[in-house]
UniProtKB/TrEMBL annotation, chain A:
GO MF term set: copper ion binding; cytochrome-c oxidase activity
Compartments (UniProt record): Cell envelope
GO cellular component, as recorded: cell envelope; membrane
Membrane-traversing stretches: 9-30
Gene3D superfamilies: Cupredoxins - blue copper proteins
Keywords from the UniProt entry: Copper, Membrane, Metal-binding, Transmembrane, Transmembrane helix
Domain of life of the organism encoding this protein: Bacteria
Chain ranges of the Cytochrome oxidase subunit II copper A binding domain: 68-171
Protein name: Cytochrome C oxidase subunit II
Main subcellular localisation: other
Species, as recorded: Fodinibius salipaludis
SUPFAM superfamilies in UniProt: Cupredoxins
Length: 172, 71
């Protein structure tokens, strides 16, 4: 079959473009160290009370000699606990690890305007670590349809300066 | 086709090639002499737009959207 040379050229160009997409994605995950949510753990969604999710909130931990924070969040119809009734308060420029799960149905945990975004699946624990670089408030929205009041399911993360972080609200 | 409708019984006419039915064609060229530089230019512009928008979406809108997951 005879293919016109211009056509040969732009068919080759299409393959170059696909190769370029693949190279940029590989570069992102290898050289720029981008991360996505992976498998962390499974959990019995009926018995969250026996786990750290039974007393959700911000915990202080020491890892590698550094003070870090762990945030356990339950996503329920139709609130983040904590997050909705009271904001999740964390210090800036500190490692914060979120553990998120759901006792009822599928939810989303999307920190609006950032790359922090995970599904919250009954029976699965989503885990991610981040550092909030600036003092400000972030909105959390549920981005997986979870029922009739899904559209009002939202919460807040309040990032405060390290020096103003009130440790009296931490949970044990 | 309109040509066939206007001459439904003329078999001789429909057996002729398109060129034979259009004798005012001045010059016939082979496929490689046909060089659509306009189409080539549009294709290159299109590829450039796709590549630039990809770079913007991936490196600026996605990777630059801190805070990100670090672990």
């Amino acid at each position: 079959m005879h293919i016109h040379k211009f056509e040969q050229f732009w068919i080759k160009l299409s393959f170059v473009l696909i190769a370029f997409f693949i190279v940029t994605v590989v570069y992102g995950f290898v050289a720029m160290d981008l991360k996505v949510i992976g498998d962390h753990a499974t959990i019995d969604p009926q018995n969250l009370a026996d786990t750290k999710f039974g007393n959700p909130g911000v915990r202080e931990v020491t890892r590698n000699g550094q003070t870090e924070y762990e945030v356990y969040v339950q996503t329920i119809q139709f609130a983040f606990n904590p997050g909705t009734a009271q904001p999740i308060v964390v210090p800036a420029n500190t490692r914060v690890t979120f553990y998120i799960t759901s006792p009822d149905v599928l939810h989303g945990f999307d920190v609006a305007g950032t790359n922090l975004n995970t599904m919250s699946i009954p029976g699965q624990v989503a885990k991610f670590t981040t550092i909030f670089p600036e003092v400000r408030e972030y909105g959390i929205v549920c981005n997986e349809y979870c029922g009739p009041a899904h559209h009002v399911m939202e919460g807040k993360i309040k990032v405060v300066p390290k020096s103003e972080f009130d440790k009296s609200n931490l949970v044990e | 086709m309109p040509e066939e409708k206007s001459n439904p019984t003329n078999n001789n006419e429909s057996e002729k090639s398109w060129e034979e039915r259009n004798p005012d064609i001045v010059r016939e060229i082979t496929i490689d002499e046909y060089q659509p530089y306009g189409t080539l230019t549009l294709t290159l512009i299109y590829f450039a737009i796709v590549a630039l928008m990809w770079v913007f979406m991936y490196f600026v809108e996605f990777a630059g959207n801190a805070p990100s997951i670090i672990d």
